[in-house]
Amino acid sequence: MKELSLHILxxxxxxxxxxxxxxxxxxxxxxxxxxxxxNIKDNGKGISKNIQQQVMNPFYTTRKIRNVGxxxxxxxxxxxxCEGFLKIQSVENVGTEVIAEFKNSHIDRAPLGKIExxxxxxxxxxxxxxxxxxxxxxxxxxxxDTREIKEILxxxxxxxxxxxxxxxxxxxxxxxxx
Length: 178
Ligand SMILES: Nc1ncnc2c1ncn2[C@@H]1O[C@H](COP(=O)(O)OP(=O)(O)OP(=O)(O)O)[C@@H](O)[C@H]1O
Ligand SMILES: [Mg+2]
Known about the structure:
Helix content: 25-40%
Largest sheet: 6 strands, mixed
Bound molecules: adenosine-5'-triphosphate, magnesium ion
Shape: globular
Strand content: 25-35%
CATH architecture: 2-Layer Sandwich
């Protein structure tokens, strides 16, 4: 059973590879409506209509090194196993949104896990982009936005180890508070 934060890392890596410079990750948990929803939205190059169906297939990839692409099919399988679904909405040259929904109480729903570590890994990628992470539990929200952090940091690089450590603890503490 793979932690959902690792799936989030995989899907966000696709956004970076698609040249996105703004990525929004949203985790929404509603215990009354009984869903656990992951939403990853980017402004990358998008996926053309006829390819959108194919990316659900493990043998579709635009990778050059190996010819299977598993990021999307694995998350789709995990969601469907939990009476949920995966949906992709994408417009070429505008961006892509991947929505994965799980039945929250399903026994097979993996835990979110260490989302702060996935975010740190994402922040460590070399490309320049803004990342917004929204964590919502029954309408109680925590929002982490690198645009705000960068404004405070000024010239200081967000990838400075001390800053990254602070971000990691900041995210963990705030999620735990909800
Ligand atoms: N956000 C996105 N923007 C543009 N294209 C995307 C996006 N996400 C996926 N794709 C396209 O869909 C393909 C399949 O994605 P998927 O994550 O399933 O596999 P992969 O990234 O190719 O390989 P893996 O995830 O196993 O490393 C990608 O190769 C890419 O062409
Ligand atoms: Mg991928």
